[in-house]
Here is the input.
Amino acid sequence: MNAVKFLFAAYVATWAIHLFYIGTLVRRFSRLRQQLRELGKGK
Amino acid sequence: MKKIFPILSIVTVALLGYALYLALVVAPTDALQGEVYRIIYYHVPSAWTAFLLFFINFVASIRYLTRSKASTENAAKWVAIGIGVVGLVAPFLPPVRRLIPPGMEPSAVATTIVLIPALYFLVGKLFPGDRLDVLAVTSAEVGVVFCTIVLITGPLWARPVWGIWWAPGDIRLTSTLVLWLIYVSYLVLRRFSNSAQTQMLAAALAVFGALDVPLVYLSIWFFRTQHPQPVIGGGGSMDPRMLHVLLFSWLAFLLFGFLVCWSRFRLELLKREVEQAHAMESLAGAEDSEKASLPLSRSSR
Here is the structure.
């Protein structure tokens, strides 16, 4: 039973890392789109 | 293309969900390790995906480095063809066969080596010009994410099975950590260097970094390590039901990795578009101020 917590931790850690990375991609996308919109307005 | 992405995303989520069900419910319990061995279904596919991404980074970097001169590009093309021909024949020759570790099939070695020229030409065809550099940074970044998972799930598996989190001096573990550090330094170089030579320097670093991949992969054959023998082609016996779940899990993670790479690739293209737009705006601003200052400077004379 004690070892199962390591299995659980490994699976949770995997998805936490993937979701964190996807989150950074989404943030970077929205920041760049915002910059592109601002550049478009400036013209 | 815009329609394919959501469809593939749904398919990937379904595959990952089914892979999780297979890993936790369908796969039999290991007689020695019990339930904790199920970490293999995330640890090993993540490692294989990371290796594949670093390999793509290596090929893209080589192509990027050699594209500046037609003669260098031509020479690289013939070297790739040569590697393919030698790789196809050499593993079956008795003197070379003796060098191959027991348990590793010559056909597996030949297939792996032939992948080098195959990927070399495929990458050149699909990613022309500066897109090679975009592919390189994409594969390195996503590869680092998968390699991070390997380095976290590994100790979480080692603790209940070996009784230690990390085996200091173990070549498999150390070379994997070095691989991760090389690619993190690659990303740091790309993030913080503004030199015109950054892309070239990063590509050169990536070529050296990729040399660590075969060392990581082959270390368990050539050295005594705490890490277990490979589950495929290493002479180890794995229950076929476990193997099927492992391969299915890898397929799901490969598709997931592909989608993440696709998004990261588009992000890099967008970033370069924004940088170009900023540069154009600065240029236009400089020209405007120059025009405005010209009559004033003439009248003041």
In short: Chain B touches chain A at residues 20, 33-36, 38-39, 42-43, 46, 145, 148-149, 152-153, 156-157, 159-160, 256, 260, 263-264, 267, 270-271, 273-274, 277-278, 281 (CB under 8 Å). The radius of gyration of chain B is 24 Å. The CA atoms of residues 61 and 203 of chain B lie 5 Å apart. The first helix of chain B runs from residue 4 to 26.
